[in-house]
Amino acid sequence: MGPVLLGPSDEAVNRQPLEHAPFGIAPPVRSIVNRSVHYMRNLDDTFFALSDPTRRRILELLAAHPATIGELAEPFGLTLNGVKKHVRVLEGTELVITEKVGRARECRLGPAQLQDAARWIEEYRNAWQARLDRFGAHVEQSKAHRR
């Protein structure tokens, strides 16, 4: 079964009131949470890795061709250790892989894909578009009603 996103509406549906639970609400259904934990952790890590402009630029540079840590450091004016820290974050999400080549560490784009992040963004874009459509319909209905 595919990953399940727990949004506010899904969470509300998956809770049952209980007298003995804090605030009268039971925790979400365990099986749904277990399936989504791995997916959400990877998604959080991916968004964290992409949140930094230096890391995004590193990905852009590596999309053109593999580069050593030293080559990546040049355009940023960063120390090798500073670039290594950024590369480690990107490695943690498999957006970048590194390999020792002689005395240098060569970096290239990793096998990770951004489909999960793109799917999450698209789902929220669709939700917001639906809300805006309903709001637009409400405004039009209000205008027609006033006439």
Distance between the termini: 51 Å
Overall pLDDT score: 79
Strand order of the largest sheet: 1-3-2
CATH architecture field of the largest domain: Orthogonal Bundle
- Number of domains as seen in the coordinates: 3
**Would you give the CATH topology of the largest domain?**
Arc Repressor Mutant, subunit A
CATH class of the largest domain: Mainly Alpha
Q: Choose one word for the global shape.
A: elongated
Structural class: mainly alpha
- N-to-C series of helices and strands: HHHEHHEEH
Helix residue percentage = 55-70%
CATH homologous superfamily caption of the largest domain: Winged helix-like DNA-binding domain superfamily/Winged helix DNA-binding domain
The biggest sheet amounts to: 3 strands, antiparallel
Which regions contain 5 or more consecutive residues with pLDDT less than 50?
A: 1-24, 28-33
- Beta-strand content estimate: 5-15%
Query: Helical element count?
Result: 6
Radius of gyration: 23 Å
Total beta strand runs: 3
